[in-house]
């Protein structure tokens, strides 16, 4: 597998983790809301509410682990992007880039 493909796959993995995090947080919020509604029902038992909160707590632990993983992996990807930017800056003349941007802006107007 080429180096470019490795980086693209790595970036894709980070995006997948972010999507999973979004879905898990949404589920967590629903679990908490469900526990709150269950608590407001007069006929509900304390154990039912405690069970709902335990499930939400377990999911919260999974979310915490996922956040740690994302912090580590996105930090590595950020370092890659910074290194790539430094290399590009060192090899390209900024005048050409600014001219391209100006031409693009003039073309859109």
From TrEMBL:
Protein name, UniProt field: Uncharacterized protein
Taxonomic lineage of the native organism: Bacteria, Bacillati, Bacillota, Clostridia, Eubacteriales
């Amino acid at each position: 597998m080429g180096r470019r493909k490795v980086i693209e796959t790595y970036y894709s993995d980070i995006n997948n983790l972010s999507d999973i995090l979004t879905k898990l947080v949404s589920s967590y919020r629903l679990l908490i809301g469900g526990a709150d509604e269950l608590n407001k029902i007069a006929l509900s038992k304390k154990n039912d509410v405690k069970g709902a909160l335990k499930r939400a707590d377990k999911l919260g632990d999974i979310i915490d682990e996922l956040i740690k993983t994302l912090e580590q992996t996105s930090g590595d990807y950020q370092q890659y992007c910074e290194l790539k930017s430094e290399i590009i800056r060192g090899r390209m003349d900024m005048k050409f880039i600014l001219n391209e941007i100006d031409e693009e802006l003039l073309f859109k107007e």
